[in-house]
Amino acid sequence: DTVQSETGDAFVRAGIDRSMNRNMKPSLAPVAGLKLPLPHRQTVSLTFSAERNTKMLQIEFGGRVNGHRELARDESARLGVVVAARLTGRIYLDSDFNGSFDSKIDRPISDIAVWLDDETVVRTDDRGMFAFNQISTNAHKLRAALDGVPADLVFADPAERTTAVTPYGPNVVTFRAVKGGRITGKVTYLDYSEDPVKPVERAIGDVRIVATGD
Q: What is the tens place of the pLDDT at every residue in 40-71?
């Protein structure tokens, strides 16, 4: 005998199960159940039953499996759930060279193309922000280009990098731009051909100049 009260996706159930024990004699076992709704159209059900020497609590989760997810098969043809993630970031001019964005000092750079795995491209908005939605949780390559901005701006960090995208959390990649410096100079040599005692300093062209970070 069972009594149940139900409201929407939730219910409470209580009753007594009648069965035969191992000695083939009638046995009564109380049973109670509870079902509650969870966020994102999920549910959880609790069922408790007891016999003379045995008690059991059963927990069951229900609802859609693939909300914002996709199903895929591995090499063994086993079905699994692939969780989609979100990758965001910002491109900005780091005016004070401190490595962090300060809206009072630093300036976001808009309309910059950012490529994901050389396949998908988005552009930064007025806040310098970009976003890739519904991407797989894996290692991805990001590439940004300072096209269409003043030539004196350069990236302070590599413009191309690989980042690991993880599920259920923020995935943020920041590109800092700084104003590049300028080095000027002149390459000369001493000409001893006319006067070995008093050589003449002359300019020389077509000289390769290499600048390094050292």
A: 777 888 777 776 667 777 888 776 655 555 55
29: left (phi over 0), alpha (psi -120 to 50) or beta: beta
> HSE (CB half, 13 Å, CA atoms) of 3?
2
Could you tell me the CA-to-CA distances from 133 to 69, 79, 100, 121 in Å, in that order?
12, 23, 24, 12
Q: Tokens 């079905």 correspond to what residue?
A: 79
CA–CA distance, 212 with 30 (Å, rounded to integer): 80
**No. of H helices and E strands in the chain?**
0, 17
Q: What is the DSSP string of 56-105?
A: EEEEEEEE-S-TTEEEEE-TT--EEEEEEEEEEEEEEE-TT-SSS--TTT
- Per the structure block, which two tokens stand in for 156? 């302070």
Instruction: Please name the residue that has the structure tokens 């309309």.
Output: 111
Give the span between the Cα atoms of 92 and 103, in whole angstroms.
10
Q: How far is CA 154 from CA 13, 93, 108, in A?
A: 67, 9, 14
Predicted confidence (pLDDT) per residue in 149-177, tens digit: 777 888 888 899 999 998 878 899 999 99
Predicted TM-score of the model (pTM): 0.53
The DSSP bridge pattern shows strands 79-93 and 172-179 to be parallel
Which residue is listed with tokens 């988005």? 122
Do residues 131 and 142 make contact, with C-beta atoms less than 8 angstroms apart?
Answer: no
- Residues written for the chain: 214
Helix (H/G/I), strand (E/B), else coil: 137? coil
